[in-house]
Amino acid sequence: MAIVNEMFALAAVGPGDFLIDLGSGDGRIVITAAKRFGARGRGVDLNPKLVALSQKYALAEGVADRTEFLVQDIFLTDIRAADVVTIIFGSCPPESPAAGAGASTCGVKSRNS
Questions:
Q1: Distance (Å, rounded) from C-alpha 72 to C-alpha 84?
Q2: Is the CA virtual torsion 106, 82, 38, 35 positive or negative?
Q3: CA-CA distance, 86 to 43, in Å (whole number)?
Q4: What is the CATH number of the domain that holds 6?
Q5: Which of 30, 33, 89, 113 is 20 to 30 A from 24 (CA-CA)?
């Protein structure tokens, strides 16, 4: 999760922030934002199985009240309410169980960018 933590440090994510993760996969970015940084978050993914898995993980991590996960096209997602928007380009973070395609490039946009 080193890459994710660096992204959050760069964006100065905190308890007053609302984060949207586009292409949220298993929800780890949204869940980490809620659990470690106190932010609220929304994950968006086209795969309903990953959205269900994300909801299960959020509940298990005790952050279901500060997170939501939607089956939705990232290109149709309204991000205007977000303080922070995250997206992973290319492969998953190296520590992800879905990784295997090499290093990833992570993007982050914050209100300070």
A1: 18
A2: negative
A3: 10
A4: 3.40.50.150
A5: 113
Query: Closest Cα to residue 3, out of 102, 77, 103, 100?
Result: 103
With both helix axes pointing from N to C terminus, report the angle between 28-37 and 2-11 in degrees, rounded to the nearest 10: 60
Q: Per-residue pLDDT tens, the chain, 113 aa: give them.
A: 788 888 888 889 999 999 999 999 999 999 999 999 999 999 999 999 999 999 999 999 999 999 999 999 999 999 999 999 999 766 544 554 444 433 333 444 445 44
3-class state of residue 47 by DSSP: coil
Q: 103 is written with which tokens?
A: 């290093």
Looking at the DSSP bridge assignments, the partners of residue 88 are: 106
